[in-house]
Amino acid sequence: MNLFTLGGEQFVSWVTGIIPTVLMLLILMNAIIALAGQDSVNKIARSCTKNPVLRYAVLPFISAFMLGNPVALSMGKFMPEFYKPAFYASATYHCHTNNGLFPHINASELFVWLGIANGVSQLGLDTTPLAVRYLLVGLVANFISGWSTEFTTRYVEKQQHIKLSRDFKE
Question: Using CA atoms, how far apart are residues 64 and 105, in angstroms rounded to an integer?
Fold first, then answer.
């Protein structure tokens, strides 16, 4: 019975903690989109979707930096269906590898970075170069993740005999 009690307490903590936070972030994102205009956001998405570097390195990084985890992942809704899995793969990793320099992106997993940084600090070393390297390696690895997922999506399309849309819906 204690297991169910603890589960209930965890659920209540989500209802009073993370769920309102995510809801407010989604409202903020939709307000920004409304202020900027749907056409402007679609134009940015079109521009970024044309180039793999923009699609899997720049847009996910900006989304993670500006919106944080998990709202950064919702920026994929502006992309054609074909690119959504790869964008999600890249954006998910951006929410982790940028944490050393930008802890606001994924505060709930800051303990991972702090654990590594603590070990480096105990050696008497500065953690800033490590955070910069973590970010730079992350940019490359996250791009590779997105691009390889795009190839995987093509493979699954052929295997399943389907064709996902690569066009924007107006």
Answer: 6
Report the chain's terminal Cα–Cα distance, integer Å.
Answer: 52
Tokens of 38: 């749907």
Higher local confidence (pLDDT), 29 or 94? 94
What number of other Cβ atoms are within 10 A of residue 4's Cβ?
A: 8
Measured CA to CA, the distance from residue 27 to residue 146 in angstroms comes to 27
CA-CA-CA-CA dihedral for 26, 29, 35, 41, to nearest 10: -130
How does pLDDT run across 100-115, given as a tens digit for each residue?
888 888 877 778 888 8
CA distance 73 to 60: 8
CB proximity list for 55: less than 8 A, separation 6 or greater: 48, 49, 79, 83, 86, 87, 90, 146
| Burial (CB count <10 Å: 0-12, 13-18, 19+), residue 35 | exposed
